[in-house]
Amino acid sequence: MKLERSKDWWLNRARREGDAVIGAGLLAFDPAPEERAATAPAEDSRIAFGKFVNLMRRRRGLSMEQLADAAEVDASELLVIEDDVHHRPEPRTVYRLAQTFEVSQMRLMQLAGLTAANDAGLRQEAVRFAARSESVQKLTSEESSALEAFVAVLSEQEPKRVK
Hints:
This protein has a single domain, classed as 434 Repressor (Amino-terminal Domain), CATH 1.10.260.40. The protein has 9 helices and no strands. It has helices at about 5-15, 35-40, 40-60, 65-70, 75-85, 90-100, 105-110, 120-130, 140-155. Pfam families: HTH_19.
């Protein structure tokens, strides 16, 4: 006897899990792409993601090539991440950047637009961070402060969930 379940059935089961972190295969990265597009503008988050990568790289005094070597990712993808808000980064790249920057992989995946955001305040903090950071050669004290506050948000263990 073979049981077949529809995608909707599985998504409804996943929603009933509440705050539990679940995932298998591609659904772990994007459980409902059509819903995400309608509910949360990924472009806002990707702007913050690109600025975050840029400021963390500059804070550490690294060129793109040096960060690419340290994170074991392709330098050309880092260039696109920092400059193109429409780019959807590879999950492996985001994972490696999260490890390199010592921030939550789950939150950085959300910020990069690879998973649906479950954190009520992450998008708001991402927009605030992106709005406060300016692209300059050296980090200003305000940028440094904004970056530190945002790193603290990304580094939190348990995000606040949308109810």
